[in-house]
TrEMBL record:
Protein name per the record: ABC transporter transmembrane region family protein
SUPFAM superfamilies membership: ABC transporter transmembrane region
Membrane-crossing residue ranges in chain numbering: 29-48, 113-134, 191-213
Region forming the signal peptide: none
Annotated source species: Mycobacterium xenopi 4042
Entry-linked Pfam families: ABC_membrane (PF00664)
Keyword match Disulfide bond: no
């Protein structure tokens, strides 16, 4: 006598739908959407510090430019610094975007900070949607798993329950499935976020300077 009966038809449970429907396209599309939103959110959030750095440059350039005499060009200011023997300041000044005599452009600083705020808001929205979709994907996957476990239990012969300790099957059906759900929900989000963040940060550092990423 066979221990397990052959599976004929998968029963349908109210509100669950057919397991084959749950494990086909919807799950893959949701998983793809989660990955896409994670990439977009991390990419946008990595751009934020660079925009804030540009705002800092605007402030620093304005402070330095205010200390230079008005009416001269930047090249003349660099030449004057070298003539005084201040080569370090001359090298610094040559790499800056300054207009001698002009102070901080607070309008440009304000626009840059507004752009940074918008970037962080967009990143937060993307992460929020990604978290919701990830939770939906995990819940649907675990719902399918529980349905499959229930189908399996229904097909087990009575002799199977007679040879098992009381509570063993209940532990497998409830505790083990809950542990799988907890592990998946924590591991996937953390690993995905960590891996994508490392890649995005290295790419941003390489775009700023190859020495930073080296």
């Amino acid at each position: 006598m066979e221990r397990f009966k052959p599976r004929t038809a998968v029963p349908r449970f109210p509100g669950l739908g057919h397991p084959a429907d749950e494990t086909s396209c919807p799950q893959r599309w949701l998983a793809a959407a989660v990955v896409t939103l994670s990439i977009a959110g991390i990419a946008v959030s990595v751009v934020g510090p660079r925009v804030l750095g540009h705002a800092t440059d605007l402030l620093f350039n304005g402070v330095i430019a205010r200390q230079l005499p008005a009416g001269i060009t930047k090249d003349q200011a660099v030449a004057a610094a070298r003539a005084r023997g201040n080569d370090t300041f001359a090298d610094l000044l040559s790499g800056m975007n300054v207009v001698p005599g002009r102070g901080v452009d607070f309008g440009a600083v304000g626009r840059t900070l507004a752009l940074a705020l918008a970037i962080y808001l967009v990143a937060a929205a993307l992460f929020w949607v990604q978290a919701r979709l990830l939770n939906l994907t995990i819940q649907r996957t675990m719902r399918t798993l529980r349905s499959d476990v229930e189908d399996k239990v229904h097909r087990l012969p009575l002799s199977f329950f007679d040879t098992r300790q009381r509570g063993e099957l209940l532990s497998r059906v409830t505790n083990d499935v809950d542990n799988v759900q907890t592990s998946i929900s924590m591991t996937i989000s953390q690993l995905l976020s960590a891996a994508l963040t490392v890649v995005a940060v290295v790419a941003m550092m390489a775009s700023i300077s190859a020495l930073l990423a080296g």
